[in-house]
Amino acid sequence: MAIIDCYGELGPQPYPTQATTPDAVEKLMTRFGVDMTFVVSTEALRGSMQTGNAWLAAQIKERPKFKGYCVLHPLMLEASIEEERKYLFTDKFVGAMIHESAMVRPLYSDPMRHLVKSLLRYSGPLLLKINEPRQLNDLELLAKEFPTQKFMILHMADEMWQSALSTASQLLNITLEIGGSNADNDKIAEGFATVGANRMVFGSGMPLISPVYAMGIIRDSSISASDKDRILDKNATKIFGL
Prior knowledge:
single chain, alpha/beta, TIM Barrel, eight-stranded parallel sheet, globular
């Protein structure tokens, strides 16, 4: 059974970890049986969007076990559109993610709407790290306005995972990545009952979080073995067009 990790990070971290390089992350992948990881640059997320995206592209270029996310910023629209052109037409990048500083502003705003509209020419999802209830409300509005754009909620919105399930249940273009730090009793089974078998994917958040954490959430779930396989591999293969 193949395992695709739909969320990892490469680069310096604000928390103690030695696994900041592709070599170190590959060792983690080998240890836990992960075949491929989709990664984002920490520099692009928390510092310079352009510098981080370029660094990530160079790091994963010759590494078949990695694919990347292109970080974008709605308040840097022209620069973001240029970043999309550079990376999202290549087979090494599978989606986009919003710069962390943009998440303190309303998601449903004119800059964000323009950015989502610019992404419609590409096939990959837009990843969002949801931290507040209002962001789920804004995402619902965005997903309704742009029904052909795929959205992915990282970590099932952590402690707001039940609210995230409620939002996703109404909108077929929202997928849930199941990692993060919240391991409530069988949220996987509740997710399957709420949004169905095809819109949940495995993501670990490594290297800050060990892959074994999210794997354990899946392993301990009451869903069937075939449905666990969907989360670990098949759903990602379909959603990301691999």
